[in-house]
Recover the amino acids of this structure.
């Protein structure tokens, strides 16, 4: 019962919000058109400013990001926020408490509760800063503040209508005339994210980060703004990260919270948070090796299609791992390959790249294939994959003793990578490759020799193993028990239905890739205008042409009539 | 916790540990104990409970698991195992480790092996900490080794290991495990041999006498030539090379359609 009620209330909220957004959207669009030109000019100027002096100071960058976020909220275009989040990784490395304090001071001109709470997470300021700096900053802020003044007031009224019922979220806003430069909640969340990342840099401040992250999540959930989705997804990510880093708390503690967020996110069609939370839950389960639970979760949940590539890559990685554990290697291989394709470039996310490749190679081996030598020469992978390279070599040559030796030598690394049990399963593959090589090299070989060459314990075992290999289709051959040898048949020829199937698979993959990329194209908003103009001209030309043709037809008709006579 | 529970628990413990164990009495006690556990909210515990209560509840469930095996009731074992999961996973950090944990897990692994649920077997194995996986715990090592030998095809090792079961309860699964192995070997023989002397077939399939082998051969539909004392395996009919017309036409049509869209 309570769930239904909850769902209803959520739905109602959603409807209200949609109405709000529609209204706002309409009003804004009118204004936007007139403003668009100004805005775009401003933007260009700003971008020029941003790009020309190459090392943009972090302070400027933060301010630029704030304006971008606000623009994305105002224009209902999430891609501005995405742009901000893309720079996040590089920006967070440059953060210092001074920069954070200055930027907060610059954006929150008025002294209010939000500013105080934000600043309270920073260490107390060192001796009062020299007076020149703040003055210089105010000059800086004056420019964006002026251009942004109009949209903000509108957005403020919008948030106010909603915030009315939850005054506790924004107590200062109820005053009759909202100050023009009061930033949006999205900006606040952005600052909170920056703060959390800064707090995470030193282990002493981790508990503070924990507190801040929980506070932020409750705020996000009460605000319930669609324009905040991509930021909210980031906050969930950070939440899990804090729990991983802090030794005093267990990662499993946030599972109920994440499950709850997953439900609400899917009810609110908040695809970005949903994707993030699903991935985090999977990570959470796999951290404790709870594969069966993770599998059940995957079966119940549908991953949002609109999710970004990084989340999709993570999702594919985790599902690939689950499938590998459950012995469906073909599926796992496909999924992990997709994960590699979707993953960001190797140099930007080397950790993920390495982790996926480790599983990918083990799965490839388990499928009976030998991975490309090229993979191990990749600069990012070369060092990390050294031990895996040894395993691959052992499997390739079919030498059980070498396999065992490298397995023992690198056991610690494999357990750390969580590939140990998968690699243990490779033992039978080593034997199979060995047998296959023997079957290729000999047309007849005694079981005794097989036993010696593969380091098997007894002839009896060898007979069973060969029998199994024949049944599994690893080799073509026959065992002659009375004589104690194995006779090997010839291999298959390269003709048949399988070839066309293999080609068909590749062709369909290429076609799908083409279709996907067509679907993924973005078109600028008013680009069709030009085409329309061009079409107009074309239509006129067509009219003329039609006229001419008509004239010509007449002539033709004349001709015909003439001909008849 | 209700007052009768501790008394019944002691009862159960003593009748379980008595040799030979009193299965009927245990079953009755378990039934009533489960009822009182459910009343106390300990059957599927949530949130915080008294540590002593939790340990007692875990003990009861573990005894239940063993009792199910002894009374040859596999579905009941599965249920007890599922209930124990909460204690082994969620309360692992608070509860003192149980001495019966690894036997119960090992038994479950063997159960999955005999039911030929290899994927579940590996999922279960993966959820164990790696230390236990490579460690010398005989209860876990036994099923892990069995699985490896089965996968390799070293069936004789599996056969020889049947007497090395680390606990009484493991033997219950031995017979069905041997049945699984025999079937595996039989399918291997069918594809790997043209013919096989009866005597060798008996040793390969671990049959002590001839009549068992003949029965088994009849079940699988093997051809037996009693005069020559050999089994002839009928070759599965060579697949004919047939061109899948429909499939080829369909794929050509899709290519044409897709190309049409692109150009």
């Amino acid at each position: 019962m309570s769930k239904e009620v909850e769902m209803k209330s959520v739905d109602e909220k959603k409807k209200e919000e949609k109405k709000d957004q529609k209204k706002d959207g309409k009003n804004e669009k009118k204004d936007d058109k007139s403003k668009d030109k100004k805005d775009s000019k401003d933007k260009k100027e700003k971008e020029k400013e941003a790009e020309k002096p190459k090392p943009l100071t972090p302070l400027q960058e933060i301010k630029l990001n704030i304006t971008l976020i606000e623009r994305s909220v105002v224009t209902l275009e999430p891609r501005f926020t995405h742009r901000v989040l893309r720079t996040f990784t590089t920006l967070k490395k440059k953060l210092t408490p001074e920069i954070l304090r200055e930027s907060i001071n610059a954006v929150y001109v008025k002294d209010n509760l939000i500013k105080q709470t934000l600043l309270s997470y920073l260490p107390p300021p060192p001796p009062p800063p020299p007076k020149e700096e703040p003055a210089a900053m105010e000059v800086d802020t004056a420019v964006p503040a002026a251009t942004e003044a109009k949209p903000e007031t509108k957005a403020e009224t919008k948030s106010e209508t909603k915030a009315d019922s939850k005054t506790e979220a924004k107590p200062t806003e109820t005053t009759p005339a909202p100050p023009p430069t009061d930033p949006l909640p999205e900006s606040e969340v952005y600052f909170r994210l920056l703060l959390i990342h800064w707090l995470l840099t030193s282990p002493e401040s981790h508990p503070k980060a924990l507190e801040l992250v929980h506070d932020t999540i409750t705020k996000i959930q009460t605000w319930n703004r669609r324009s905040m989705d991509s930021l909210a997804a980031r906050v969930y990510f950070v939440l899990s990260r804090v729990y991983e880093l802090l030794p005093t708390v267990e990662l499993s503690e946030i599972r109920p919270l994440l499950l709850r967020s997953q439900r609400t996110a899917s009810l609110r069609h908040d695809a970005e948070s949903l994707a993030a939370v699903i991935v985090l839950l999977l990570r959470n389960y796999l951290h404790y090796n709870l594969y069966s639970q993770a599998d059940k979760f995957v079966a119940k949940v549908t991953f949002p299609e609109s999710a970004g590539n990084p989340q999709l890559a993570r999702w594919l990685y985790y599902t690939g791992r689950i499938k590998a554990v459950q012995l469906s290697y073909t599926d796992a291989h496909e999924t992990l390959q997709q994960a590699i394709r979707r993953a960001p470039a190797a140099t930007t996310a080397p950790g993920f790249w390495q982790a996926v490749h480790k599983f990918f190679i083990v799965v490839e081996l388990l499928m009976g294939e030998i991975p490309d030598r090229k993979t191990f020469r990749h600069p990012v992978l070369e060092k990390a994959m050294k031990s895996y390279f040894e395993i691959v070599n052992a499997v390739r040559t079919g030498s059980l003793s070498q396999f065992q030796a490298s397995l023992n030598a690198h056991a610690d690394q494999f357990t750390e990578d969580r590939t140990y049990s998968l690699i243990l399963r490779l033992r039978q593959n080593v034997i199979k490759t060995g047998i296959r090589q023997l079957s290729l090299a000999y047309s007849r070989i005694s079981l005794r020799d097989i036993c010696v060459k593969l380091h098997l314990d007894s002839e009896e075992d060898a007979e069973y193993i060969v029998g199994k290999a024949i049944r599994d289709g690893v080799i073509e051959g026959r065992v002659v028990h009375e004589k104690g040898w194995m006779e090997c048949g010839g291999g298959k020829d390269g003709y048949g239905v399988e070839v066309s199937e293999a080609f068909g698979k590749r062709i369909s993959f290429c076609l799908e890739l083409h279709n996907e990329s067509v679907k993924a194209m973005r078109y600028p908003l008013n680009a069709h205008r030009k085409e329309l103009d061009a079409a107009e001209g074309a239509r006129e030309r067509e009219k003329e042409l039609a006229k001419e043709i008509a004239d010509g037809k007449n002539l033709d008709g004349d001709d015909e009539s003439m001909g008849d006579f | 916790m209700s007052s009768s529970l501790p008394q019944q628990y002691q009862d159960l413990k003593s009748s379980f540990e008595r040799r030979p164990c009193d299965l009927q009495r245990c079953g009755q006690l378990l039934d009533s104990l489960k009822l009182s556990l459910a009343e106390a909210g300990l059957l599927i515990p949530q949130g915080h409970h008294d540590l002593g209560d939790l340990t007692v509840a875990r003990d009861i469930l573990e005894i239940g698991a063993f009792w199910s095996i002894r009374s040859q009731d596999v579905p009941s074992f599965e249920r007890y195992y599922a209930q124990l999961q909460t204690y082994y996973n969620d309360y692992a950090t608070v509860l003192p480790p149980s001495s019966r944990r690894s036997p119960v897990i090992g038994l479950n692994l063997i159960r999955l092996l005999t039911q030929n649920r290899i994927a579940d077997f590996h999922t279960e194995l993966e959820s164990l900490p790696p230390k236990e996986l490579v460690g010398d715990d005989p209860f876990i090592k036994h099923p892990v080794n069995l699985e490896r030998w089965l996968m390799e095809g070293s069936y004789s090792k599996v056969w020889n290991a049947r007497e090395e079961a680390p606990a009484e309860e493991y033997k219950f699964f031995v017979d069905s495990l041997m049945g699984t192995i025999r079937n595996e070997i039989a399918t291997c023989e069918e594809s790997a041999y043209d013919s096989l002397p009866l005597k060798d077939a008996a040793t390969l399939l671990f049959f002590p006498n001839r009549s068992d082998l003949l029965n088994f051969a009849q079940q699988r539909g093997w051809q037996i030539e009693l005069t020559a004392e050999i089994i002839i395996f009928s070759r599965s009919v060579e697949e004919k090379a047939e061109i899948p017309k429909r499939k080829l036409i369909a794929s050509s049509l899709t290519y044409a359609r897709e190309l049409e869209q692109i150009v």
Notes: The beta strands of chain A are 444-446, 477-480, 485-488. The first helix of chain A runs from residue 2 to 51. Residues 24-124+134-160+182-246 of chain A form one domain.
